[in-house]
């Protein structure tokens, strides 16, 4: 029996996501049984068409004020300054959703600073899904891929930290103790998946691969040992595990552009 998800929008229109028969997709379907009575926690972070300087800065400053954090708006283009804001979040996070929104705002600012438009939307229950979290098996992680077609749905890195590749990109300290604290593998699965809005290729160039490998080599064995991993590749850092596909990606894009956002997910069987 094919399992499907019905994605319902604010105007009561809907789209269907056909799940594949992978272990990972079945885990997600089982989580959906428990979560489908709840509304999605869909926000600016999940909609790439909300990634504008005006929206991001407003959200960042509002949440910082609620947390009594002073933000220097003149330094928001500085990645080292943003790294410092990440550290404030890391030290202060207490489960409050305001902290999560503050952290997401930092990531949104990093995305827009990079000049890269997000190519996915995210479907997420946030803290409500925490009790249903499952560990990925090594076998699941070996199915990670770097390329996806428009309409593909996949799970990817969702830890409270960075991948080793992002850690290196962001100029974090060359220190194994800090690295095992902040740089994490794709370890925990929660109900959060992404939908590709266009064809995606998360590969890196050969030159960048060489530069990253040269940086990672002195730390890799200790980092993998800390996380009880036999190995960890750029495919597992940057990629994801496909769990299905949506039936009409153009309609999804139109809805997102018009801020007709997803509000609910229902599990259905065919």
Structure at a glance:
The protein has 270 residues and is α+β, with helices and mostly antiparallel strands. It is 41% helix and 19% strand. The chain has one domain: Cyclophilin (Beta Barrel), CATH 2.40.100.
Order of helices and strands: EEHHHHEEHEEHHEEEHHEHE
- What is the count of β-strands? 11
Question: In what range is the share of β-strand residues?
Answer: 15-25%
How many domain modules? 1
Question: What coarse outline follows from CA principal-axis ratios?
Answer: globular
Count of alpha/pi helices: 10
* Helix proportion range: 40-55%
Strand order of the largest sheet: 3-8-6-10-2-1-11
In angstroms, what is the radius of gyration?
19 Å
For the largest beta-sheet, the strand count, sense and barrel status come to: 7 strands, antiparallel
Structural class: alpha+beta
Q: CATH fold name, please?
A: Cyclophilin
Q: CA-to-CA gap between the ends? A: 6 Å
Average predicted confidence as pLDDT: 92
Question: What is the CATH class name?
Answer: Mainly Beta
What does the oligomeric state look like here?
single chain
Question: How does CATH name the architecture?
Answer: Beta Barrel
């Amino acid at each position: 029996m094919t399992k499907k998800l019905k994605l319902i929008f604010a105007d009561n229109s809907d789209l269907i996501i056909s799940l594949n028969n992978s272990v990972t997709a079945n885990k997600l379907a089982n989580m959906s049984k428990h979560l489908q009575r709840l509304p999605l926690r869909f926000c600016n972070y999940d909609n790439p068409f909300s990634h504008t300087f005006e929206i991001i800065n407003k959200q960042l400053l509002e949440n910082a004020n609620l947390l009594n954090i002073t933000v220097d708006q003149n330094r928001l283009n500085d990645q080292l300054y943003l790294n410092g804001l990440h550290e404030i979040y890391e030290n202060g996070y207490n489960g409050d959703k305001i902290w999560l929104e503050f952290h997401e705002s930092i990531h949104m600012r990093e995305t827009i600073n990079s000049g890269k438009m997000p190519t996915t939307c995210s479907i997420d229950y946030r803290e409500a899904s925490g009790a249903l979290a499952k560990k990925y098996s090594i076998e699941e992680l070996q199915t990670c891929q770097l390329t996806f077609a428009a309409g593909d749905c996949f799970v990817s890195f969702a830890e409270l930290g960075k991948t080793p590749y992002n850690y290196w990109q962001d100029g974090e300290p060359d220190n194994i103790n800090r690295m095992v604290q902040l740089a994490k593998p794709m370890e925990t699965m929660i109900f959060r998946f992404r939908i590709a809005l266009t064809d995606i290729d998360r590969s890196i160039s050969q030159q960048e691969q060489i530069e990253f490998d040269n940086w990672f080599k002195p730390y890799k064995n200790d980092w993998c040992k800390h996380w009880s991993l036999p190995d960890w590749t750029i495919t597992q850092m940057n990629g994801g595990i496909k769990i299905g596909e949506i039936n009409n990606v153009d309609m999804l894009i139109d809805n997102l552009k018009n801020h007709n956002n997803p509000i609910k997910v229902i599990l259905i069987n065919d």
